[in-house]
Design goal:
The chain is built from 1 helix and no strands. The chain has 57 residues and is mainly alpha-helical.
């Protein structure tokens, strides 16, 4: 009897997990995605990659 209850509980948890995964997959259309711009530089014309707050002497 105890094994049947544990087995039913495990099956219930698996079913809930599958339903949550299916809901997540079907609602994956995210209209709030933000596109990021990428700046491409020539090999000889790259800007400074690091700046400091202190001025060089």
């Amino acid at each position: 009897m105890k094994k049947n209850i544990i087995g039913a509980f495990v099956i219930l948890l698996v079913a809930v997990a599958l339903f949550l995964m299916m809901e997540d997959i079907t609602n994956s259309k995210n209209p709030d995605t933000q596109l990021q711009q990428v700046e491409v530089y020539d090999a000889n014309n790259q800007p400074d990659l690091a700046t400091t707050d202190q001025e060089e002497d």
